[in-house]
Write a structure and sequence with these properties.
Shape: extended
Strand content: 15-25%
Structural class: alpha+beta
Helix content: 10-25%
């Protein structure tokens, strides 16, 4: 699986915290939902925002392949990435905003309110 070169959409088959998929199988050691990695036709997509990694397409497309990711933790480790679960995103947001990093946190409007 190549996270860096594959435009992908990941779809959850169960709610976070639910350790079984629709068949009742254990989806991962960490209790994370089963995910599917969809490989999309790269020629149809254009980079909308390099900082945020937004790739968009103006037409309907079908995936060229799909891969079930049962062990997200292992897949991320294999890709050289890490997953951090934070109780609140605001400390990360504020640290990134005050740094020289280019970053995007477009979904912060959906985050819990900043602690007072």
């Amino acid at each position: 699986m190549n996270f860096a070169k594959t435009v992908a959409a990941m779809q959850s088959t169960s709610r976070l915290g639910d350790s079984s998929d629709s068949s009742g199988e254990l989806s991962s050691a960490a209790g994370l939902p089963t995910l599917y990695l969809y490989q999309m036709p790269l020629s149809k997509f254009s980079l909308r925002d390099a900082c945020a990694g937004y790739w968009t397409c103006d037409e309907n497309v079908a995936p060229e392949g799909v891969e079930r990711v049962d062990d997200l933790e292992r897949a991320l480790e294999k890709a050289g990435a890490s997953l951090r679960i934070l109780p609140n995103l605001w400390q990360l947001h504020d640290a990134a905003a005050s740094s020289t990093l280019s970053f995007s946190m477009i979904r912060m409007r959906n985050a819990a309110p900043a602690p007072v």
